Amino acid sequence: MRKSAFSLILLTLLCSRGESVPKDGALAIPHLRQQGEAVQLIVGGKPLLMLAGELGNSSASDAASMRWIWPKLKNMHLNTALVPIYWELIEPEEGRFEFALVDSILQAARANDLKLVLLWFGTWKNSMSCYAPLWVKSDPVRFPRARTRAGEPQEILTPFSAENLQADVRAFTALMRHLRKMDEKEQTVVMVQVENEIGMIPDARDHCREADKRFAEAVPADLVAYMQKNKKTLHARLREAWEKQGSPVRGNWETLFGIGLATDEFFMAWHFARYTDEVARAGKAEYPLPMYVNAALIRPGYQPGQYPSAGPLPHLIDIWRAGAPQIDFLAPDIYFRNFREWAVQYDVPGNPLFIPEVGNDQSPANAFYAIGEHDAMGYSPFSVEDLADPGRNPLSRAYALLRQLQPLLITHQGKGSMRGVLLDSTGQHARIEMGDYLLRIRHEYSWSYARREEGVMPRYGGLFLRLADDEFIVAGTGLIIEVAPRAEGVRAGIGSVEEGRMIEGVWHSGRRLNGDQTHQGRHIQLPGQDYTMLRVKLYSYR
Ligand code: DGJ
Q1: Among 91, 210, 236, 296, who pairs with 160 as Cys (CB 3.0-4.6 Å)?
Q2: Closest listed residue to residue 83, CA positions, set 380, 493, 487
Q3: What pLDDT is attached to residue 456?
Q4: Could you tell me if 340 and 459 lie in one domain?
């Protein structure tokens, strides 16, 4: 009786928040939902901000050797793990599926309070097809390869083969069917990555016979219709190439976009997207979890083919969207140091920012920036299990703090009340508006009294959460913050600075900071040795 009354209240609550609830009262499966400008991942009826890490490529191939990993992830305060699922292991012989390893991963994640994003290492993994089962790889007649311009076959399955596609579709379908059976109730798996870092090398496009034939054909009407409909918002590189040709709506790829590597890449991106879309469509027909693709980014000065051409890169977002409507978003794997520049390019209308991979040697200050400035859905260093000193390393300290803040962050996502900054030797200053005030933020090393390591300028950063026009929370590391009024004719001062803890979304005050800790009321400081947060109240006077 009490239980059904509770279910009714829960159902009413969820319905009033626009949540999709099946008729039997069970919670909807994980899905994406818009909140203001942000997209949130909803799991068990609640938004999940993924404080995640991705396992190394071979780590998830044996249940026993994974035993030490799970508690380590929990110890580092992760709430989500990105774990590969290998085609060669789930379908060792054609049509015979083995899911014992997948089931053990589900169980271990549940036992350690972790959600999972599964990475489908199917047809492609970092351009190559090394995770295809041997029965696929050893039969290039039935499962044809991509070829170079010179005609050499590569260890890459061509997307121009129905047989390749159907083999991947069958395996992925079996996986998604199995997941629905084993996990729909528990919702351990919250999202799926389809393939991994798709891209063509060493040429910008595939040159197998079927690819050449398709290259000479008319650009598909679906893509042309998309470009016509979205002409104003097309990525400049696609729009300019098309305009340079006079914006034709009929003709082959070179007629529409000109002759050159850029056109080869557009063509290839379309066909990668179509293939991936078919895989995702078949998987979603079994179990419609959110699905995304990840990109290997471009090394400065590299041309398509030198870098993995035609993957889900910023300049190809329109082609991927038009060709792969089943893919919910595109995501960057950020190993380069210019984290900010790549994050900005993936936080575009209709594409929420999720960072499935970032070098595990990068500063976790990135996470504060991505969440604060870009409403990121999640952040995930690669090979996270290899980090030393779990429980105390920088990622662990950063995630412990972000987990405290999580309820508040989720409430603020998409509402324009959060900001993030990232400072290092390439930019040591930032300015942001917070309510009635202007915050002048600088790298801690720009203050002569700061504790510093000789010879290096670490990356520091943080996020700012506006609570009222004169009050905010700042969380992160290594920042000095001075305040100024936005209004003319007044001066601004620091009213109070408090340490504290967030427990279930409620602030519990700790020490009141002042004197040396605020440079006698001149500034607010987050020390660079740790990840901390402060609640700050400002005031103005004449
Ligand atoms: C990016 C890939 O997506 C990962 O699987 C891994 O290979 C890393 N690069 C580098 O180790």
Answers
A1: 210
A2: 380
A3: 86
A4: no
pLDDT at residue 12 is higher than 80: no
Query: Which one of 351, 380, 412 terminates a domain?
Result: 412
Window from 20-29, 97-106, 186-195, 331-340 with minimum mean pLDDT: 20-29
161 CB under 6 A from ligand 1?
A: no
Q: Are residues 458 and 533 in the same domain?
A: yes
Looking at the structure, do residues 105 and 189 belong to the same domain, yes or no?
yes
Residue 54 in contact with ligand 1 by CB distance below 6 A: no
Same domain, 154 and 90: yes
Closest residue CA from atom 5 of ligand 1: 57
- pLDDT for the residue 6: 30
> Of 280, 394, 264, whose CA–CA distance to 319 is shortest?
264
The pick from 119, 196, 386 for probing ligand 1's pocket by mutation, whose C-beta has the most ligand atoms within 8 angstroms, reads: 196
445: domain CATH number is 2.60.220.20
Q: Is the CB of 195 under 6 A from ligand 1?
A: no
The pick from 82, 382, 385 for probing ligand 1's pocket by mutation, whose C-beta has the most ligand atoms within 8 angstroms, reads 382
Residue numbers of the domain that contains 487: 418-541
| % of the chain exceeding 90 in pLDDT | 93
Last-in-domain residue among 389, 412, 435: 412
pLDDT for 16 equals: 35
22, 67: one domain:
yes
Whether residues 277 and 167 share a domain: the answer is yes
Helix (H) or strand (E) segment spanning residue 323: helix 317-323
User: Integer distance in angstroms from the first to the last C-alpha of the chain?
Assistant: 63
Q: Is the CB of 57 under 6 A from ligand 1?
A: yes
Transcribe 391-441 into DSSP letters: TTSHHHHHHHHHHHHHHHHHHHTTTT-EEEEEEBTTB-EEEEEETTEEEEE
484 in a domain, yes or no?
yes
For residue 321, the domain's CATH number is 3.20.20.80
Q: Nearest Cα to 327, choosing from 290, 353, 364, 298?
A: 290
* Nearest Cα residue to atom 2 of ligand 1: 126
Cα angle 434, 439, 445 (rounded to 5 degrees) comes to: 145
Structure tokens at 43: 């799991």
Mean pLDDT, to the nearest integer, of 67-71? 97
Indicate if 402 and 422 belong to the same structural domain.
no
Residue 2 clears pLDDT 80, i.e. is over it: no
* Average confidence (pLDDT) over 110-134: 98
